[in-house]
């Protein structure tokens, strides 16, 4: 029987699951349980969510006891400095992960809930944690270090960790394969633009910079997160607007970005408003594009020579206007988008640059679940 891996991605109010054959890359079933713990919802907690996922799988004719399940893979956002390889979970790992929740209070606790419940419900297979920070673990110190008091940073483990690493690695591998380049020789920029958004510069398979930092708040403008701001804004609001630290964190993580600027976090809806002449939506879009171009320019300079720029995730894969606006007018830097290719919707990896563009520009669908499933096999075979 072919091996399968169940991949779980537990957020604060949602649980995404997918059953995958890592060898073929085939997805056998997937789904999302939403509104976990919300007052109007029938799903009280992560235990109930996982139960609902099992029921949905069994309605699809899948029995986890007889489907060749060899591992359960858990997406964990923050691995801190400790975890940078796919890690088979035991009680000692759980204890260290709990400690790391301090670095990622919004993201790690729901994943821990998911792990706890899944280990109890599926006790006979190994559970593996795969970390969003892992790929960036060896980023050069110049890119990973904040210019703040050195001892304070060391004591509190403050560095730039980077996130979406599973996606940046997977997409860069796919891009190299698509172009017939060796991953460990290619210089790449990956733009992961979803609800969360991040950019990375990868030189010869090694990330040399990424836009997210200690937390997934730094960098690009996102659906609800501000990305880069002057850190002075936080002290100013605490002092003058009588906001608490928690207030500012909620504001920057949940009420900023496109939502804060235009009252709309969904890119499709934002585009519709722009098309009907809404200037507030237009400004939100312009801020988003301006920031993105700043990162692209910065990464071109860091890499020196760039072979390929890839767009991925919900916005990157689907919003042709964003891709064009992000790279418009850069012929002088060897980047030329073919507007017809860019406008063609298609599945799978594809080129959207002209044949003359010296930097290839691609759209590459990400598949974090498949990458996690394959990482699980590596962990359990190790
Ligand atoms: P997440 O970070 O939650 O995984 P996704 O990668 O699914 O996010 O991206 C979600 C974003 O992608 C939303 O803003 C959504 O509007 C946008 N999106 C999805 N499809 C399209 C489309 N066809 N055109 C423009 N934006 C799209």
Automatic annotation (TrEMBL):
<feature type="binding site">
    <location>
        <position position="16"/>
    </location>
    <ligand>
        <name>ATP</name>
    </ligand>
</feature>
<keyword id="KW-0418">Kinase</keyword>
<feature type="binding site">
    <location>
        <position position="75"/>
    </location>
    <ligand>
        <name>substrate</name>
    </ligand>
</feature>
<feature type="active site" description="Proton donor/acceptor">
    <location>
        <position position="132"/>
    </location>
</feature>
<feature type="site" description="Transition state stabilizer">
    <location>
        <position position="225"/>
    </location>
</feature>
<feature type="binding site">
    <location>
        <position position="368"/>
    </location>
    <ligand>
        <name>Mg(2+)</name>
    </ligand>
</feature>
<feature type="binding site">
    <location>
        <position position="9"/>
    </location>
    <ligand>
        <name>Mg(2+)</name>
    </ligand>
</feature>
<comment type="similarity">
    <text>Belongs to the acetokinase family.</text>
</comment>
<feature type="binding site">
    <location>
        <begin position="192"/>
        <end position="196"/>
    </location>
    <ligand>
        <name>ATP</name>
    </ligand>
</feature>
<comment type="function">
    <text>Catalyzes the formation of acetyl phosphate from acetate and ATP. Can also catalyze the reverse reaction.</text>
</comment>
<dbReference type="Pfam" id="PF00871">
    <property type="entry name" value="Acetate_kinase"/>
</dbReference>
<dbReference type="InterPro" id="IPR004372">
    <property type="entry name" value="Ac/propionate_kinase"/>
</dbReference>
<keyword id="KW-0963">Cytoplasm</keyword>
<keyword id="KW-0460">Magnesium</keyword>
<comment type="pathway">
    <text>Metabolic intermediate biosynthesis; acetyl-CoA biosynthesis; acetyl-CoA from acetate: step 1/2.</text>
</comment>
<dbReference type="GO" id="GO:0016301">
    <property type="term" value="F:kinase activity"/>
</dbReference>
<keyword id="KW-0479">Metal-binding</keyword>
<dbReference type="InterPro" id="IPR000890">
    <property type="entry name" value="Aliphatic_acid_kin_short-chain"/>
</dbReference>
<keyword id="KW-0067">ATP-binding</keyword>
<feature type="site" description="Transition state stabilizer">
    <location>
        <position position="164"/>
    </location>
</feature>
<keyword id="KW-0808">Transferase</keyword>
<protein>
    <recommendedName>
        <fullName>Acetate kinase</fullName>
        <ecNumber>2.7.2.1</ecNumber>
    </recommendedName>
</protein>
<comment type="subunit">
    <text>Homodimer.</text>
</comment>
<dbReference type="InterPro" id="IPR023865">
    <property type="entry name" value="Aliphatic_acid_kinase_CS"/>
</dbReference>
<dbReference type="InterPro" id="IPR043129">
    <property type="entry name" value="ATPase_NBD"/>
</dbReference>
<feature type="binding site">
    <location>
        <begin position="266"/>
        <end position="268"/>
    </location>
    <ligand>
        <name>ATP</name>
    </ligand>
</feature>
<feature type="binding site">
    <location>
        <begin position="314"/>
        <end position="318"/>
    </location>
    <ligand>
        <name>ATP</name>
    </ligand>
</feature>
<keyword id="KW-0547">Nucleotide-binding</keyword>
């Amino acid at each position: 029987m072919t091996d399968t891996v169940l991949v779980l991605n537990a957020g604060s109010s949602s649980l995404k699951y997918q059953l995958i054959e890592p060898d073929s890359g085939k997805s056998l079933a997937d789904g999302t349980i939403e509104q976990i713990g919300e007052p109007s919802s029938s799903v009280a907690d992560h235990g109930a969510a996982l139960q609902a996922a099992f029921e949905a799988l069994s309605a699809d004719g899948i029995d986890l006891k007889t489907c060749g399940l060899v591992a359960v893979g858990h997406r964990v956002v923050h691995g801190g400095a400790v975890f940078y390889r796919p890690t088979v979970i035991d009680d000692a790992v759980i204890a260290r992960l709990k400690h790391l929740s301090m670095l990622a209070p919004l993201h790690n606790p729901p994943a821990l809930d998911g792990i706890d419940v899944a280990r109890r419900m599926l006790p006979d297979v190994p559970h593996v944690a795969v970390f969003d920070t892992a790929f960036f673990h060896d980023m050069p110190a110049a890119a990973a270090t904040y210019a703040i008091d050195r001892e304070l940073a060391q004591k509190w483990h403050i560095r730039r960790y980077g996130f979406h690493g599973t996606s940046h690695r997977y997409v860069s591998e796919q891009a190299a394969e698509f172009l017939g380049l060796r991953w460990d020789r290619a210089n790449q920029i990956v733009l992961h633009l979803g609800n969360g958004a991040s950019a990375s510069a990868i030189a010869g398979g090694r990330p040399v910079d990424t836009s997210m930092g200690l937390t997934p708040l730094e960098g690009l403008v996102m659906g609800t997160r501000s990305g880069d701001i002057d850190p002075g804004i936080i002290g100013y609001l605490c002092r003058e607007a009588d906001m608490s630290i928690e207030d500012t964190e909620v504001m920057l993580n949940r009420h900023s970005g496109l939502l804060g600027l235009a009252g709309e976090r969904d890119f499709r809806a934002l585009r519709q408003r722009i098309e009907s002449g809404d200037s507030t939506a237009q400004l939100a879009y312009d801020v988003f594009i301006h920031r993105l171009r700043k990162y692209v320019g910065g990464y071109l300079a860091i890499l020196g020579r760039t072979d390929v720029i890839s767009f991925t995730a919900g916005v990157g894969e689907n919003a042709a206007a964003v891709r064009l606006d992000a790279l418009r007018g850069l012929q002088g830097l060897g980047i030329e988008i073919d507007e017809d290719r860019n406008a063609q919707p298609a599945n799978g990896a594809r080129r959207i640059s002209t044949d003359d563009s010296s930097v290839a520009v691609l759209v590459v669908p990400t598949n974090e679940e498949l990458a996690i499933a394959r990482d699980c096999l590596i962990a359990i075979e190790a």
